[in-house]
Amino acid sequence: MFSPFQKAEALRIYDQVGSVDRTIRILGYPTRRCLYGWIQERSEQDPTARRKAIRVKRDEEVPLSREGRKQQDILSAEEVDELQEKLRKAQMTLDILQEIVRRKQMQPVFTVTPISQREKTEIIDLLRSKYSLHELLEAAVIDRSAYYYHHNALERRHNETEK
Question: Within this chain, do residues 100 and 112 fall inside the same structural domain, yes or no?
Answer without folding.
Answer: yes
